[in-house]
Amino acid sequence: MTSLKSDSKLSIKALIKGLTMLGVLALIVYLIRYAGLADALDTKWMDEHVRSRGLTGILTYVGLATFFSAIGFPRQIICFMGGYAYGFAFGGLLGSIGTGLGCACAFTYSRLVGRTFIKRKFGSRIQKVDDFLRRSPFNMALTIRFFPIGSNVITNVLAGVTSIPALPFILGSTVGYVPQNVVFALFGSGINVSSSVQMVMAVILFAISTLLGFKIYQKYKNQAGAVIE
Fold first, then answer.
1. Three-point CA angle 91, 191, 45, nearest 5°
2. Does 155 or 216 have the greater pLDDT score?
């Protein structure tokens, strides 16, 4: 019974976290589309340096997505802006590439440069993460990305000082990012496409992706707890 209550609280926490972010982004969409605050919210910069610059703009967006994701900036906002710039499909794809590269950068930094500091800061927690991920780095990374309660950047740097191979973890993370990245890109595309249905779809897809992640989490919850809590 205690375990069931704990799981329910965790699922509710994930939904509240994501829906709060969607609510904030919905307010941004409203302010841009209906309150004339596009310049105040700096969409002009995106229009001039990303949307209208062809391949250069794409590379600029992916580069910024990589950098900000690597240092812990919320990937939901990164993909929201990708959806604004390129529509939900292409924006979600580019956002996933950028956040995947950001994961790779944080992982690589941790493995090659920051190992001593991270081991000192996180101590025994690293061994728990290692025990969880090394069973199947791709599948385990996929699990914790589908149900993103914990810190994305902390997970990346902790994984960097474990014994797991880099490629399966990074690929599993990138694939695991995709469902919610697309949801937030869909929301971001609503700035340019006046469709309430699109916004409702984003909320529904978010709820479905979170519940799917929760089901996967339940399968591995004893091991995953060390990573996402």
1. 75
2. 155
CA 68 to CA 52: how far, in whole Å?
21
CA distances from 64 to 35, 118, 201, 221 (A): 27, 25, 27, 34
Tokens for 170, please give them. 């990074």
Place of tokens 């900000």: 68
Q: Would you give the end-to-end CA distance of the chain in angstroms?
A: 20
Distance CA 41, CA 23 (A): 16
Token look-up 């474990």 returns 162
The tokens describing 89, both together, are 């499909």
Q: Measure the CA angle with vertex 164, ends 162 and 166; round to 5°.
A: 105
Using one digit for the tens of pLDDT, what is the confidence trace for 154-197?
A: 889 999 998 899 999 999 999 989 888 888 888 777 665 555 66
Between CA 124 and CA 92 the distance in angstroms is: 36
Please, are residues 96 and 181 in contact by the beta-carbon 8 Å criterion? yes
Least Cα distance to 69 among 60, 81, 77 occurs for 77
Cα–Cα distance measured from residue 109 to residue 174, given in angstroms and rounded to the nearest whole number: 17
